[in-house]
Amino acid sequence: MRFTAPRGTRDVLPPESELWRRIVQRAEGLFALYGYKEIVLPVMESTDLFVKGMGEGSDIVQKEMFTFEDKGGRSLTLRPEGTAGVARAFVQHNLGRSGLPVKLYYKGPMFRHEKPQAGRYRQFHQLGVELIGSPHPLADAEVITLCNDFFRVLEVPAVELLINSVGDESCRPQFVQALRSFLLKREERLCPDCKRRLEINPLRVFDCKVKECRKALEGAPRVTDHLCEACATHLRSLMDYLQNVNIKFRLEPEMVRGLDYYTRTVFEFQKVKGGPQDTLAAGGRYDNLISIYGGEPTPSTGFSIGLERVAAMLKEGAERNEEIGVFVIAIGEEARKRAFSLVKELRDRNIHADMDFMERSAKAQMKVADREGYPRVVIIGGEEIEGDYYTFRDMGESSQRIVTAEELYGLLMEG
Asked: Which pTM value belongs to this model?
């Protein structure tokens, strides 16, 4: 019997896994530069954590969570997102006791029972950042700037920033009522999911991709026209901060996030030429989530990045390992012994090195080095086997020369 990965999941194989590793490394370097520290969250959480935080009527809670009962009768859920776990940990461990803000990041797999399709998996991976403790729009500007830097540093092409405000408990209820009244007159045009959303949270109708629902929203009230003065001021200030550091954005009044805990700022980074899965990163402000979990009211903001989607956006050929150093080719058994010692010595000097383990011919080994993208090759054997000499070949220039061991180390350390 042959086994395959479950539907909606997949193995990430080399060279793609190398691309993932470099994305994560660069992200973590940026996070550290901004002062964020890693939190490692459990993959499983209490089901109630997500129900209370994201809203019982949210699509994730209603249709997408992997929930099961353990042997003790407790309802557990594989985490569908990371913010709820960070908020829970903040309260559980009193992370704010040493002062605010608390700046954290996380990485790892998330799980949602969605229909598998291009760019969407039931097990997917996220990088996330949370800034806990500040109500100021400067905090929103900080996390948006960090996310923008992520795409800039990685040179992810054609990415656009969209921002909006969904108001707060002072002004959102009036907007929700106005939107519900508008949609009730068009209810017969809504899909079954949106009819349900109309009763629970009409804001989520904006997330629907069904063509008729999109048409039904034409002329709908805009949340930006219903903001209270405090929320409007917050949004204007955020836009000023972004403009001040030359970050381009588009105000998108119809953009909402599908979770109940968002307040005021919401934002997305999207592919300019988007498709069904065009969102690469998304986030916003969640000022009430920590109090829902039993903590003191603690305003917070953050975002998450979809690793699979970002990797898919990078240029073809970007998967080639930038750190690849040298491939050592051995001709004959005696040469293999020297090659093994040389590879060990190079690795001790922190030089990426590898060799053949399949007893291939010299020609076949050269093909392996070329296929794996090694820019430099060292050949041991033939005339050089008796002395402390090596043939050094530059694959890019198609040139080679005889060098001593010290000359070889110098060439490799130069890059």
From this structure: 0.86
